[in-house]
């Protein structure tokens, strides 16, 4: 009887240790890192210089301004017109300081300006296009950098 009780207790201890060692440890495994909440687009308030190239290697340059309330204005030829006002509700927070702005969407075609802030003074950007008209269904139509002025 004693052997049977000891066997059961030993088995329970082994099962407990196995269950603990196999538990989900979010954040400790680099392949299982959860996205961190963004600081908010308004954190990057100020004027930003935009530089980059489109998919045909043509220069894209201009400026954008991020207001204290998160509104974006700017002047980037072919992308942001000076009269265009991008309100905070048009900006999607993707986590890890990545923000997306839908610049154009019609008939299954979508063009998105994606901005990834790497510091309080620098960021990278991409123009992503998706839809049936885009070869392969999606493409990067331009990319470059943002620098705080």
Structural description of this entry:
- This protein is mainly β.
- The protein is built from one helix and eight strands, in the order αββββββββ.
- The protein has an eight-stranded antiparallel beta sheet with strand order 3-2-1-8-7-6-5-4, with no helix packed on it.
- β5 and β6 form a beta hairpin.
- The longest helix is centred in the N-terminal third of the chain and has 20 residues.
- About 9% of the residues have low confidence.
Share in β-strands: 35-45%
Order of helices and strands: HEEEEEEEE
Class based on secondary structure composition and strand pairing: mainly beta
**How would you sum up the major sheet?**
8 strands, antiparallel
| Gyration radius from CA atoms, angstroms | 24 Å
What is the β-strand count? 8
Oligomeric nature of the chains = single chain
Q: Please tally the helical runs, counting DSSP H or I stretches of 4 or more residues.
A: 1
């Amino acid at each position: 009887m004693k052997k049977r009780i000891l066997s059961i207790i030993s088995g329970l201890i082994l099962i407990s240790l196995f269950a603990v060692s196999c538990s989900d440890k979010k954040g400790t495994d680099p392949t299982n890192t959860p996205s961190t909440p963004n600081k908010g687009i308004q954190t990057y308030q100020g004027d930003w210089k935009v530089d980059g190239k489109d998919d045909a290697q043509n220069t894209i340059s201009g400026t954008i301004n991020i207001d204290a309330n998160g509104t974006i204005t700017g002047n980037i030829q072919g992308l942001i017109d000076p009269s265009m006002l991008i309100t905070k509700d048009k900006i999607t927070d993707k986590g890890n300081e990545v923000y997306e702005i839908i610049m154009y969407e019609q008939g299954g075609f979508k063009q998105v300006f994606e901005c990834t802030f790497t510091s309080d003074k620098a960021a990278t950007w991409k123009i992503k296009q998706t839809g049936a008209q885009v070869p392969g269904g999606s493409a990067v139509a331009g990319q470059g950098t943002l620098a705080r002025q």
